[in-house]
Amino acid sequence: MASATLPSDLAFALAVTVYPLLRRIFTGSKPSLGRLVAVNKATSAVHSSLTTVLAAYFLYRYRIQHQGAPPASGKEGLVARQGPAAGVSRYPDDSRNPAIQIRSTLGNIITAFECGYLLQDTFALVWEARRRSRLAGSKTDLPLLRMILAHADKTLLTHHVGIGIALLILQHYIHGGRERGIHIIVQLVLMNSSTPLLNIRWWLRTYHPNQRMLCLASDLAFATAFYLARIRLVEWVLRDYGTAHGRNSAWKTYWEDLRLPCQLGTGALYVANAGWWTILVSNIMQRLVRDLRWS
What is the C-alpha separation between 54 and 189, in angstroms, rounded? Predict the structure, then answer.
């Protein structure tokens, strides 16, 4: 099994070593806070672009390999829906669903690379918070948790820790040859596709705040990308899973086919992303109204 997982192990090792090395090269030993933040943003943009390309290629290959495949459930799956026959699950049979059952070296590499990136970037965020703490005049011996709560990007850090732990657990299953749902996980990696626009938007607003039209264009581009990559994508994943069982509705799939843990996880992801998008759009509109008043 060690030889089978060697490519994903190397991808993980690559992420946790090369990214910190590049960060050190571009920041130096004693970087200013501004330079440190800028390099972290640039690293994020490069990584998200790379993983988006890899995920898109993986999904393209998957489509070619499984195009025109019959519904995974077949007759048995349709009967299982009708329940509540004794001994018959009301959930669809995924034993022949390639989206759940396929094992892919490339898919494992992508998830391991993402896991390694999140792990090292978590430490980078903590290091950044430490620099902010020192600039704010806080005590150098401030407890780590208090320092993080006071100076770290808590939303981003929570995202990294949560997704990173989930991907670490996935690596454990990959090493045991028991991974499932790699296709769906790689689909979700496409959420990274909105991150480069997030960082471009930050760069414009930080270094070119007077370029209001460019800033507005970056706001609208990021809001659109966020909606497509983090809200509509969830609906696409649900619809794609349901198609394997003869469904054509994302929300019928959600309510009638997903088990409770999957419903809770998917629902939380969708609501959180929809909430962040609503806040984003609200802030953009407030800024636009303010700019129009000043002009």
Answer: 9
d(CA 219, CA 284) in angstroms, rounded, equals 7
Q: Residues 90-112: what's their mean pLDDT?
A: 88
Instruction: Write down the H helix ranges in the chain.
Output: 2-27, 33-66, 74-82, 98-101, 105-135, 144-151, 154-175, 182-189, 195-207, 212-227, 233-243, 250-256, 260-294
Nearest CA to 225 out of 183, 185, 276, 181 is that of 276
- DSSP 8-state secondary structure symbol assigned to residue 211: -
How far apart, in whole angstroms, are the C-alpha atoms of residue 133 and residue 120? 20
Q: Which two tokens stand for residue 290?
A: 């303010």
Q: Residues 93, 99, 101, CA angle at the centre, nearest 5°?
A: 65
Let me know if 15 is exposed, middle or buried by CB neighbors in 10 A (0-12, 13-18, 19+).
buried
**pLDDT tens by residue, 226-242:** 999 999 999 999 999 98
Q: Describe the crossing of helices 105-135 and 182-189 by its angle, rounded to 10 degrees.
A: 40
The model's pTM is: 0.88
Q: Which residues contact 71 (CB under 8 A, 6 or more apart)?
A: 77, 243, 244, 245, 246
Instruction: Note the Cα 127 to chain centre separation in Å.
Output: 22
Q: Which DSSP state fits 190?
A: G
Which value, to the nearest 10 degrees, does the dihedral of the CA atoms of residues 241, 244, 248, 249 take? Answer: -30
Token pair belonging to 192: 């990274």
Long-range contacts of 147-155 (CB under 8 A, 24+ apart): 152/125, 152/126, 152/128, 153/125, 153/128, 153/129
Spatial distance between the Cα atoms of 164 and 48, rounded to a whole number of angstroms: 15
Region at 237 (left for phi over 0; alpha for psi -120 to 50; beta for the rest):
alpha
With 60 as the cut, is the pLDDT of residue 223 above it? yes
| Residue 60 CB burial class (10 angstroms; 0-12, 13-18, ≥19) | exposed
